[in-house]
Amino acid sequence: xxxxxxxxxxxxxxxxxxxxxxxxxxxxxxxxxxxxxxxxxxxxxxxxxxxxxxxxxxxxxxxxxxxxxxxxxxxxxxxxxxxxxxxxxxxxxxxxxxxxxxxxxxxxxxxx
Length: 112
What we know:
With 112 residues, this protein is of the alpha+beta class. Helix content is 15%, strand content 37%. The chain contains two helices and five strands; from the N terminus they run ββααβββ. Strands 2-1-5-4-3 form a five-stranded antiparallel sheet. The longest helix is centred in the middle third of the chain and has 11 residues, at 54-64. The radius of gyration is 15 Å and the shape is globular. The mean pLDDT is 90.
């Protein structure tokens, strides 16, 4: 069994690109998110999938190798967007984006 097979049906969109912004992997949810652009976009440039100012922000994040976490609302659904660099063997290898649907109310716990 492929060691990454679990991600295929993960209930959130997962997109992975290399350090040049070329999309390496997309799970089913990610392909659904980009259905209007053809779904599976492996081999294409990440910058072709984002309009400005998002493209400019993403370029800066990748250059600085910084994470970016925020929430959005799209078509009445709240989503958490988590963008972060990924590494292989300690070497910067590109960026990972995870997009999760959020419930209307999220419990918050403080654990010390």
